[in-house]
Amino acid sequence: MAKFTPGTYEGKAYGNGYDSKPSSVVVSVTLSEDRIEDVKIVSHGEIKGVGWGLKTSPVETIPAAIVKHQSLGVPPVIGAEKTSNAIIKAATKAIAASGADTAALTVPVPREKHGDEERTVDFLVIGGGAGGLAAGVQARQGGADVLIVEAAGVTGGSAARSGGKVMAPGTKWQHAVGIYDDPDLLYDYMMKQGKGMMDPKKIRFFVDRAYENLLWLENCGWKCQDVEPIHESIVPWRVYNSEGGSYMSAGQGGHITYAMHSTYEKLGGEIVFECSLKNLIVENGAVKGAVCEYAGGGTLTVHANNVLLATGGFAANREKLEGLYPQMKGYFTDVPKTNVGKGVAEAVKVGAKEYVSPGVQVNYMSISSAFIGIKEEAGLIVDADGNRVVNEWSYQYVVGDALMRTKKDHAWYVTSGKDNYATVQAAFNAGKTSDPKDVYADSLEELAQKMGVEYATLKATVDRYNQMSANGKDEDFGKPAEFMFPVDGPKYAAFYYTPCITVTFGGLETDIAARVLDVNGKIIPGLYATGESAPTGIYGTIYPGCGTSIGTAVLWGRVAAGMATGQPVE
């Protein structure tokens, strides 16, 4: 008896598109009477370097896996689960359209199991995000035998999911549009943002090399689309978009990591996927390699005189993050699930010093269909008690830092629909969003009750705000008059703001050469770190500007590789 009705069928599901908007993944499945003959991606809008573009990406591997195993139960690519599951779901719908019973095709297919393996290389890089890929390229350019071990099934880490922005002063792109900038100006800006917590030597080192770092990325194949401001209130413009990026876009970071990945492969570099750090190997006080574990089973022991930790931050480690910052309870993040701080934890076990930062990169936003907060909407924002605490027309991470310091797990965007933002007006006029925590009311008193705040507190805040709006002067926080939108009814809404975290600031302490330091401030021989594994001295409590994380990760990844290969990055 035939299992299928022969033919070609299509199905659609939603994946992981740009700008927080899911993309349509359309899949066609060709069936014979007893086999899945072919699975093809008809169209998609997934992230380059994560969903597609690499040999191991879901678009390249999931369709073939379904055919090979004759199953819809194939495992998703680690780190690219949204795209993987969208392809599987779309294929399931396509097969269901033939009238077949898809339940019989969903028996889980186990991940590939490896035997215990042992390798020796010159330079071991653990983590294939921006910093790890940069180190791999730099080391291969120096002629070293390099191995990158990546816990996910794709490279790129959180950088690939980002807006794909980098920051530098005094560049050809600035000169082309008449912008004057230099390293001293960027240095002063970053030191001011750090509020005394920055390492002056590291910041100086970064700003003096940031432009060369961009040219190095360009040489890898990255293309700068244009230059834009960190925020409208901050000049000069010094943030550079990757292709397709603009303002608070997301997903274009794959253009940066894809360029480095491709360059690394062209240089003969090797990457082992879905293999995570288990522990470091130490001999006579020096790090001499690492033991790693495959997701499907089996260990990989790598001997190396130089090891770089580029395993990312810990935004996916909810227990640790909420333990350190209780006010972040219930936070949202879209970083890879492998970002749990494993590299830092294992380094601490061998004597490394971990710095716990008082802050993280946090943006407060609605996670409903409105997504108010992503585009830096600057109406009335109040804390969980109904108090105003910041000039809302500030860089979004300045707003986030102020709200984080209230020690509460949420905030509110309060409006009567008069704000000059399409997102706010659309959500207000709709009278509902997909987030049940968003509230609507016919009076301010009713709104306060639904928000769970004291009416007297909210009324005092709104009355004060409206009076300053009418007077055209924000005497409390200095917000420009054109952004003082009154909240005066007749209807009201309050959109629930959840803390959203991408970059974590705490990590290993390193010197300017990316060498990891122990609890006594001494260098641990053979051990290096970059990116979110070692951001100490690069941040205060405020994220200084788009591109800081990628730029510093790439630079110190290259520095570590230069040190390991005896060809220092000047």
Topology diagram in text:
Blueprint: E1 7-14, E2 24-31, E3 36-43, H1 58-69, H2 81-97, E4 117-120, E5 123-126, H3 130-141, E6 146-149, H4 157-161, E7 165-167, H5 172-176, H6 183-194, H7 200-220, E8 226-228, E9 239-241, H8 253-266, E10 270-272, E11 275-283, E12 286-294, E13 299-303, E14 306-309, H9 318-324, H10 342-349, E15 354-355, E16 360-365, E17 380-383, H11 396-404, E18 411-415, H12 422-430, E19 439-441, H13 444-451, H14 455-471, E20 492-504, E21 507-508, E22 515-517, E23 523-529, H15 548-565
Parallel strand pairs: 4-13, 5-6, 5-14, 6-10, 14-23
Antiparallel strand pairs: 1-2, 2-3, 7-9, 8-9, 11-12, 12-13, 15-21, 16-20, 17-18, 18-20, 19-20, 22-23
Helix pairs in contact: 1-2, 3-8, 3-15, 6-7, 7-15
User: What are the segments in which pLDDT stays under 50 over at least 5 consecutive residues?
Assistant: none
Determine the fraction of residues in helical runs and give it as a percent range. Answer: 25-40%
Portion of residues in beta strands equals 15-25%
Biggest beta-sheet profile: 6 strands, mixed
Instruction: Name the overall outline.
Output: globular
Compute the CA-based radius of gyration.
25 Å
Mean pLDDT, to the nearest integer, reads 95
Across the major sheet, the strand order is: 10-6-5-14-23-22
Q: Tell me the number of helical segments per DSSP (H or I, 4 or more residues long).
A: 15
Total count of strands: 23
N-to-C CA distance: 71 Å
Q: Which secondary-structure class do the elements indicate? A: alpha+beta
